[in-house]
Amino acid sequence: MAIAKAERLMNLALCLMNTRRPLAKRELRLSIEAYREIGTEDAFNRMFERDKDDLRELGMVIETVEALDGETGYVARRDRNRLPEIALDAEEAAALSLAARVWQQARLAGAASGALQKLRAAGVPFTEEGYGEGHSVIEPHIPAHEPAFEPLMLAARDRRPVVFDYRKASAVRPETREVEPWALECWRGHWYLAGWDRERSARRVFRLSRITGRVRPRGGRFTAEVPDHVDVRQTVASWAGEGATSTARIRLRRGAGYPLRAKAVETVPASGEWAADWDELEIPYGHGLDAWLVEFGADAVVLAPEELRADVIDRLRAVAKG
């Protein structure tokens, strides 16, 4: 079966690359023996679509052209499917090999391994001592345990809108969000998605651990332009107060809120009736800090500024109301 599929894909690739004009599906079916043996038109269409997707997954650029008579044609132009000579030094090859090892436990493992094999065949100097198939002193790993990671990664790659239920930090129940996914990024052990929120007509960043239920595909194309560079980490960091020019003062229960303690620029024991169990912290104050403080519940009390205290109280009341 594997040999038959490989031969079919090779024949399809040769047909698409050795034609001067786009070929319709009916012409490809007549040209490739494996397609001629398919009994029904529906079965052929399904096989052809799978084969076309497989070739694109392998890196082939297949153009779709609409003819004057309304029939769709396909062609893989040689100038767009010719790679320049690959030249990487040992350090660059090592970096690529380490990057591939990151995805050993994820769906990308097969793609990463296949990419390394192609680069080796092209003469890239991968070595067995630490960067090849042997054991490396450095074993990088990025966890991707959230069920939403894989469908969102594929949707961002294929530029497909999605729908999912998302629970904000200040809400008890999730809300349905329709999003055009742009990029995924890991920051401090959590995965975040950046994309275009269609209902709000604005850029948004979503934490994958707050996505509930299944990520569902939505038909159609992207309606918003995808930016050339999407810095998810910078957005999340600014929400967490990093790079802020002002500070907030909070009262924090001892033995709780270690992420807040790590960000504190000053920590002193609380005074008065709070002295036994509480500390007072001064932390950077930036956009989104109110949503983050709500996650610590009754262990954190905002002392200043007043607008931050009011925002946190409003969020807690919204949670209490459900």
Could you characterize the architecture of this molecule?
The protein is of the alpha+beta class and 322 residues long. Helix content is 36%, strand content 23%. The strands form 3 sheets. The protein has a 5-stranded antiparallel β-sheet with strand order 7-6-5-4-8. Strands 10-11-9-12 form a 4-stranded antiparallel β-sheet. Strands 1-3-2 form a 3-stranded antiparallel β-sheet. The longest helix has 17 residues, at 41-57. The relative contact order is 0.07.
Quick rundown:
By secondary structure, this protein is α+β, with helices and mostly antiparallel strands. The chain has helices at 2-17, 25-31, 33-36, 41-57, 90-102, 108-121, 149-158, 232-239, 258-263, 289-294, 306-321, and strands at 23-24, 63-66, 72-75, 162-166, 175-187, 190-197, 202-207, 211-217, 246-253, 266-269, 278-285, 300-304.
Number of strands: 12
Shape assignment: elongated
Helix content: 25-40%
Question: Which sheet architecture does the biggest sheet show?
Answer: 5 strands, antiparallel
Beginning-to-end CA distance, first to last residue: 55 Å
What's the SSE pattern? HEHHHEEHHHEEEEEHEHEEHEH
Low-confidence segments, ≥5 residues, pLDDT <50? Answer: 128-135
| Radius of gyration based on Cα positions | 26 Å
The number of helices is 11
Q: What amount of the residues lies in strands?
A: 15-25%
Content-based structural category: alpha+beta
Strand arrangement across the biggest beta sheet: 7-6-5-4-8
Average pLDDT reading: 82
